What we know:
Elements: H1 25-40, E1 45-47, E2 57-60, E3 73-83, E4 87-94, E5 97-107, E6 110-115, E7 121-126, H2 128-141, H3 152-168
Antiparallel strand pairs: 1-2, 2-3, 3-6, 4-5, 6-7
This protein binds nickel (II) ion (NI).
Amino acid sequence: MIRQIILHPDTRLRTKCEPVANITDERRRLAADMLETMYAAPGIGLAASQLGVMERLIVMDCIKPDENNPQPTIMFNPQIISRSDETFSYEEGCLSLPEQFAEVCRPTEVEVSWINEGGNPVERSFDGLWAICVQHEVDHLDGKLFIDYLTPVRRQIITRKMKKMKRELDRG
Ligand code: NI
C-alpha cells in the first residue's frame, strides 16, 4: 500500500525515533509499504518517520531503475559503526522536500550494522550512492534533514519554499 509522505516542515521529521524491539509481521508489512511508497515516488531511500511511524526503520534501493535487478534493502535499528576520513560531495534530495536539492559533504565509505527483515543482525560496508543514502536515512531517524548541512540562510530559503508548496497542496 502506498502511503502519504510527510513534507517538511513537520515536527515528526524533527523527532528522534525509537529502536525497534522485535520484528513483527506488522512491521514487515510497514517495510513493504515503505518500499512500495519509495519506488512509486520514485526515490532511493525512505525512513519510517517520513510516513509518521516514529521507529528506527529505513528502506533503500540505490540500483538504477533501468538496471533491472532491484535490491530492496530493509534495515531495522541501523547504526553507522564507522566512517571513512575521506569525504565527498553529492547533490542530495529528499522525498520530504520535493524539488529541493543541495550539495552535501559526507564520508565516502561507512560501515553499517542493522537487523534485517528476518530478525538477523547484518554488518556491511557501503560506498558510492549507497553510502550517501544510508547516512541520509539514518539522519532521518535522529530528526535530521540534509538541509541541516547547509547555511542557515539557505535552509530558511528552502523551508520557505516548502511552506508555500504545502499551502498550495493544502497540506499545512
Ligand atoms: Ni530524505
